[in-house]
Structure formats: structure tokens, C-alpha cells
């Protein structure tokens, strides 16, 4: 069980790049841990640092720019494509992001994000380009209950889709495993009926 | 209305529907490996839960393992820790492990089918996106994240929403020198790397029917590169013949029953797909990628598109990709210098791939300034290659058959391509940094890769065939 939430507001980090794949989010060479923590340090590693050296940040990369902060990442179309590795979601969560906004998410990334309490918010292309044109001091509000995302200064708002079940999970801070464990009897019942398949 | 292959399997595996939510889907077979499972076991232990059906999970070590001197302790510390964690977790939870040194060890998507664990009509998952490979047998097979690995371990179920359905039909006969890898790279170049996002894809048509199981696996393997949730091919006589007599295939007494069931697994004539695509095999040529996603492919004799041929909203990505590759728009790829050749990965490391490579390089010798890694998909493939003398043919041509694992497909072990170097690779992903930081990957078929190993440059394999 994690902490549930109803809304997220504040400043955001704009990453105006399309097709950000999981190898960019967290390069494969940093996947060798056996726990879920600590991946934030290597989030966008190859974009953040010159030559893999953490003492030499690339100042043209948005995470290294002081002007930008906040727990919302705004990214270009087709975010999270590539591998099924959940490390991408963990590294974003570990870094401190609570929501990612894009006009399109890769399927597996989306479900991995939801499973880890990271909210993927799909907006229209035009809303997304509005977001990228905002100044660094602008703030967003994501209301999970109402399923809306709002640009605070202009009041521009869009609604987003989220599966009702996932929404309840996020708001209450429980996850799929809590749910599946609660229906074990039903699963055993199903197995009995299908028994001949599982000799 | 008729049912699709996907519907037939899906419906049979729904344990329960949730209002306004996903379905609870029962999972028949679950594969795990050292990289995406440790956190799942840690999660289980933290909840104090046992593995629900340990006999339905099979483990192997593949992603991290060295491809030389596998009998020695793993040098890389973190790799060693992950492999050891897998051993410990499997022992604790009574899961069968085909670890290093075991005669069944290998890349998870190679060993499942070759052991007969993968069968038609099943639901199959693994914490690796190329699980779609197993769909070649007419199963619903897809990659999952580590939380989902934990779910399956805890309950043998997953929460899943039903994807939309697409059918890609390929008709006609493949040209000489064109193999299934070219076919799937061709589809990708038409559909793009996100063209099948949200869909389960069924591959059908006469071209597919005429392919071997190995070739079908190559295609389903890369369905994920189109963004598809999974790829599948209806089982037929080729499928049944492949499975028969494999170690975990239904035995004699059960074979007829299994066969009768498997024969029901096809899309009915009047089944409706959300999207249909038809392609002609005759239009396909040997393919090569020039960019940093698998959709950026062209015929090996073609040119990289010029900027004005690229839709305006894809131009930034296109230019970024070319910059990374160190290439100019509008130029030819054929004739470009290659530094490394990697023949392996769950896409193309099966015995048929090695046979193709061996018969091509027999009597030829590798170019001096090219480093070539040929990595079999499994211990069984390695053994078979040795029995057939493939290792000797490779050695005479100046190559060496290494030991099984994922190797340079993702550069997690020591097999990394140095920054700035060009590697022609039979794997499935040419993402930035995939084969090592700064490595430049060109995806191609085993034949095209073998041709480059001989010439040292990107070559058209058809120039060697008469
Ligand atoms: S060979 Fe590559 S794609 Fe296949 S399972 Fe291994 S890492 Fe994944």
C-alpha cells in the first residue's frame, strides 16, 4: 500500500522530445540493482551528463536547469516506447515525479507507471504544445478525481482518460496485487474448471 | 459474428471481469530471468506472500551472462549479484531454474519454444518485451513489467484490458535473399515504430504460412517494435510438427487431445479486426536500418530518405537519429564501413539462423578489420551447431561461436559496442546506446549481417547469390 492522492499541482519540467524510449529514460547499463530504489540518480543519464561523469552535467538538458522544477514531467509524443522494463517508471518515481504528461504513451510504460503510482496524463497535441510554450514559472493542476489538467495562469483545461479501476487504486493507494490476493478463491475455482489444461 | 484467434484464447482465460476496469486474466506459463525478477521477489517477500503456482514459472539466466568462459565466476559484480539472487529466489520458491551450466540454459524466448513449454492456445508472459516471440505458436504472449511479474508470482493472474485487434496479411513468395527478418523490418518501415500501438497483431497470409517456426518467431518477436501488445500466428501443421516430441510437449497419451484443441485456434472467416493491413511479399528486399528506431528501415540498396520525404512532425527525430548515426540524409547505406557484426539475440539466434550464416560464409573469410560475435540462443542451439559442424565452418571463416545469452543485444554483459562504432546486428533494437553508450546499430537479417562480416561494409547479400 502506498499513499493515495487526489490531485497534483505546481511547476513542471518540459522535455520537448518525441519518442523518448526506455533506454533514454534509464540506460540498460544501470539496471543491475535488485531493489526498486536509487534509479532516480540515473534517470536520463546520457542526456544529463557528459561522458557518464556525474560531476559534468550537460547544462543544456532541462533537468540540469534550475529554472525548472516540480513533480510533473511534460514530454513529447510516444513517451516510454521501447522495452517493458519497469525501471523506467521506478526511475521517474524515484527522481520525484508524480505525473507525466504527453500526447501519447507507449502501452507497457503506461501500465507500469500506473502500477507504481505514477500518473500518465494523455492530452491533445495542441494542449501539449501550449504546455511547451509556457514560461518556467507556470503552474499546472492535475485533478485525478475530476480527471482534468489545468494551466493555472490561463485557466486552459482538458480532461483526460483513466480507467475507473486504476483511478480508485491511485486515489486509495492500493495496487493490483492487493486486489488479486483478495480474489484467490475465485482463481482457484477457475483452475478447477480448466483443470485439464494444467496437468 | 466469428471470433478471432485472439478472442478465442482470451475468452478462455478470463477469470473475472472488473466493472469499469480490466479483466483478471489467467496465465498458463510464466518465464523469469535475472534482471526483471529480483524486485518482484523482494516485493513478494515484503508482503509475506508465497509463489502461488511455482510449477508454472520457469527461470533462466540470459540478460547479463558472459558469453565466454561461462564456467568461471561472473566477473562483473552486479551481474553476478543478479544471477545469484535468481538462484536463491528460485530455490526458496521452488521454481525450476535453467541457470548457467544447465543444458537447457539460454535466452528465455529461445528456450521456451525449443523445450516445448510454449504451446498453442496458452497465455504466456515474461518480464521482457520480446515475449511476443511465443505468439508464433498461436498463443497470447506479451511482455510485462516487474510489478506484473510480482502479480503473476502471487496469483498466476494479471489485470489486463483487451487490446484492439489488427491483422497483417502478407501474400506471395519472398524473393531470393529475403528472409523473415527483412519481412518484419519491411512491415516496420511501412507501419512505423508506433504503428501497432494498442493492438494485438495477427500475422496471416500465404507468405506467413510458408515460413518455418524459427522464421515466424522472428516476426512475432519484433511485433513489439511496432508498439503492438503482442503478435501471433495461427498454429498449423508446421507448428504441430515443431512441437511434437519436444521435452515438455504433450506426451503420446495426450497428444491427440491437444492437437484437436489446437486445430480450433484460428480466426473465423467472418471474424472482424479493428484494422487490416495487406502487403505483398514480392515488394520486399533485404532491409537495413539507418536510424535509431526499428521503423527507420530501407532496402539495403536504397538511400536514407531526404528531409523533405519525412513528415514535418517527424523531422526533429529524424535529424537527431542521423546525427547520432553520423550519416547524411539522402545518402546510400550500402558500402558504408562496419566495425562490428553481432549475430544473436532472441530475434535471430536459433539453429536455422546459424545454418543460414554457416552456409553463406562457407569457403569465404571474414574481413580483417571487423569484429564478429556469433552468439547462439541457447545451450541446445550451441550443441546442435556443434553436432552439425557449424562451429568448424564458422572457425574456418575466421569467426567464433560464443556461449549463449542476450549478449550485445542490450550490452548488459561485457559484449558492448564502443562509442561511435557501427555494428550490424541481427537483434531487434537500434535505440541510442542500446548496444553500449554511443554505439551505432544497423538492424539486418543474419544473411545481410554475414555478408557484412565478409566484406567489412554494408552489402547486398543478393550480389553473392546466383
Ligand atoms: S536477446 Fe535482447 S531482446 Fe531478446 S530477451 Fe535478450 S535482451 Fe531482450
List the helices and strands and how they pair.
The complex is a heterodimer of chains A (199) and B (466).
Chain A: E1 7-10, E2 12-15, H1 22-25, H2 45-48, E3 72-75, H3 87-95, E4 99-102, H4 107-115, E5 119-122, H5 125-133, E6 140-143, E7 148-151, E8 157-159, H6 164-172, H7 176-182, H8 184-193
Parallel strand pairs in A: 2-3, 3-4, 4-5
Antiparallel strand pairs in A: 1-6, 6-7, 7-8
Chain B: H1 5-13, E1 14-17, E2 23-26, E3 29-32, H2 38-47, E4 57-60, H3 77-93, E5 96-98, H4 108-114, E6 123-126, E7 140-143, H5 146-155, E8 157-160, E9 164-171, H6 180-191, E10 199-204, H7 206-209, H8 213-221, E11 230-232, H9 237-243, H10 252-262, E12 275-280, E13 287-289, E14 297-299, H11 315-325, E15 340-343, H12 351-361, E16 371-374, H13 379-387, H14 390-396, E17 422-425, E18 440-443, H15 446-455
Helix pairs in contact in B: 2-5, 6-8, 12-14, 12-15
The complex binds iron/sulfur cluster (SF4).
Protein model, in words:
- The complex is a heterodimer of chains A (199) and B (466).
- With 199 residues, chain A is α/β, with parallel strands linked by helices.
- Helices cover 31% and strands 16% of the residues of chain A.
- In chain A, the strands form two sheets. Chain A has a four-stranded antiparallel beta sheet, with no helix packed on it.
- The mean pLDDT of chain A is 90.
- With 466 residues, chain B is α/β, with parallel strands linked by helices.
- Chain B has three domains: 5-160, Aconitase, domain 3, CATH 3.30.499; 164-235 and 262-283, Aconitase, Domain 2 (3-Layer(aba) Sandwich); 288-465, Aconitase, domain 3 (2-Layer Sandwich).
- The longest helix of chain B is centred in the first third of the chain and has 17 residues, at 77-93.
- At the A-B interface, helix 4, helix 6, helix 7 and helix 8 of A face helix 2, helix 3 and helix 5 of B.
- The structure holds iron/sulfur cluster.
- Residues 62-63, 107-109, 128, 130, 345-346, 406, 409-410, 427-428 of chain B line the site of iron/sulfur cluster.
Amino acid at each position: 500500500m502506498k499513499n493515495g492522492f487526489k490531485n497534483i499541482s505546481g511547476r513542471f519540467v518540459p522535455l520537448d522530445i518525441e519518442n523518448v524510449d526506455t533506454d533514454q529514460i534509464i540506460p540498460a547499463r544501470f539496471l543491475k540493482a535488485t531493489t526498486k530504489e536509487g534509479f532516480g540518480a540515473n534517470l536520463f543519464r546520457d542526456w544529463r551528463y557528459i561522458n557518464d561523469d556525474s560531476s559534468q552535467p550537460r547544462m543544456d538538458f532541462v533537468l540540469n536547469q534550475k529554472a525548472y522544477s516540480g513533480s510533473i514531467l511534460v514530454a513529447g509524443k510516444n513517451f516510454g516506447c521501447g522495452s517493458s522494463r519497469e525501471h523506467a517508471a521506478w526511475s521517474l518515481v524515484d527522481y520525484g515525479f508524480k505525473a507525466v504528461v504527453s500526447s501519447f504513451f507507449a502501452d507497457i510504460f503506461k501500465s507500469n507507471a500506473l502500477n507504481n503510482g505514477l500518473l500518465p496524463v494523455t492530452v491533445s497535441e495542441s494542449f501539449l504544445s501550449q504546455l511547451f510554450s509556457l514560461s518556467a514559472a507556470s503552474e499546472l493542476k492535475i485533478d485525478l478525481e475530476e480527471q482534468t489538467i489545468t494551466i493555472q495562469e490561463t485557466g486552459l483545461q482538458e480532461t483526460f482518460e483513466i480507467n475507473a479501476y486504476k483511478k480508485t487504486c491511485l486515489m486509495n493507494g492500493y495496487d493490483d496485487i492487493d486486489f488479486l490476493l483478495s480474489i484467490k478463491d475465485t482463481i482457484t475455482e477457475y483452475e478447477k474448471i480448466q483443470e485439464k489444461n494444467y496437468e | 459474428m466469428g471470433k478471432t484467434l485472439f478472442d478465442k484464447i482470451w475468452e478462455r482465460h478470463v477469470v473475472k471481469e472488473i466493472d469499469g476496469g480490466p479483466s483478471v486474466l489467467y496465465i498458463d506459463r510464466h518465464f523469469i530471468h535475472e534482471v526483471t525478477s529480483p524486485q518482484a521477489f523482494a516485493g513478494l517477500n515484503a508482503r509475506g506472500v508465497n509463489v502461488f503456482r511455482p510449477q508454472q514459472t520457469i527461470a533462466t539466466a540470459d540478460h547479463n551472462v558472459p558469453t565466454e568462459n561461462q564456467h568461471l565466476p561472473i566477473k562483473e559484480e552486479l551481474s553476478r549479484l543478479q544471477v545469484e539472487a535468481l538462484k536463491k529466489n528460485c530455490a526458496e520458491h521452488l521454481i525450476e531454474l535453467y541457470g548457467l551450466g544447465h543444458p537447457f540454459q539460454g535466452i528465455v524466448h529461445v528456450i521456451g519454444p525449443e523445450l516445448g513449454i510454449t504451446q498453442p492456445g496458452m497465455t504466456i508472459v515474461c518480464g521482457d518485451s520480446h515475449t511476443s516471440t511465443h505468439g508464433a505458436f498461436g498463443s497470447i504472449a506479451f511482455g510485462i513489467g516487474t510489478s506484473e511479474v510480482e502479480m503473476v508470482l502471487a496469483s498466476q493472474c494479471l489485470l489486463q484490458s483487451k487490446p484492439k485487434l489488427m491483422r497483417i496479411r502478407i501474400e506471395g513468395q519472398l524473393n531470393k535473399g529475403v528472409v523473415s527478418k527483412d519481412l518484419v523490418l519491411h512491415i516496420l518501415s511501412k507501419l512505423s515504430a508506433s504503428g501497432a500501438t494498442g493492438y494485438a497483431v495477427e500475422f496471416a497470409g500465404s507468405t506467413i504460412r510458408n515460413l518455418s517456426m524459427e522464421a515466424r518467431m522472428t516476426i512475432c518477436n519484433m511485433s513489439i517494435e511496432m508498439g503492438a501488445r503482442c503478435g501471433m500466428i495461427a498454429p498449423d501443421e508446421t507448428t504441430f510438427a515443431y512441437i511434437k516430441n519436444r521435452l515438455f510437449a504433450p506426451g503420446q497419451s495426450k497428444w491427440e487431445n491437444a492437437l484437436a484443441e489446437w486445430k480450433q485456434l484460428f480466426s473465423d472467416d467472418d471474424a472482424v479486426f479493428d484494422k487490416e493491413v495487406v502487403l505483398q511479399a514480392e515488394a520486399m528486399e533485404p532491409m537495413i536500418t539507418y536510424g535509431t528506431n526499428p521503423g527507420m528501415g530501407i532496402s539495403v540498396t536504397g538511400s536514407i530518405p531526404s528531409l523533405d520525404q519525412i513528415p514535418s512532425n517527424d523531422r526533429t527525430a529524424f535529424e537527431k537519429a542521423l546525427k547520432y548515426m553520423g550519416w547524411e540524409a539522402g545518402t546510400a547505406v550500402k558500402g558504408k564501413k562496419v566495425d562490428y557484426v553481432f549475430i544473436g539475440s532472441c530475434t535471430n539466434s536459433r539453429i536455422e539462423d546459424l545454418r543460414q550464416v554457416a552456409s553463406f560464409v562457407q569457403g569465404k573469410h571474414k574481413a580483417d578489420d571487423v569484429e564478429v560475435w556469433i552468439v547462439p540462443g541457447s545451450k541446445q542451439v550451441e550443441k546442435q551447431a556443434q553436432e552439425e559442424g557449424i562451429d568448424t565452418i564458422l572457425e574456418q571463416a575466421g569467426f567464433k561461436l560464443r556461449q549463449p545469452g542476450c549478449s550485445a543485444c542490450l550490452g548488459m554483459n561485457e559484449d558492448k559496442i564502443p562509442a561511435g562504432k557501427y555494428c550490424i546486428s541481427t537483434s531487434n533494437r537500434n535505440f541510442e546506446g542500446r548496444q553500449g553508450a554511443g554505439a551505432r546499430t544497423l538492424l539486418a537479417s543474419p544473411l545481410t549481417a554475414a555478408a557484412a562480416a565478409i566484406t567489412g561494409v554494408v552489402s547486398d547479400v543478393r550480389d553473392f547469390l546466383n
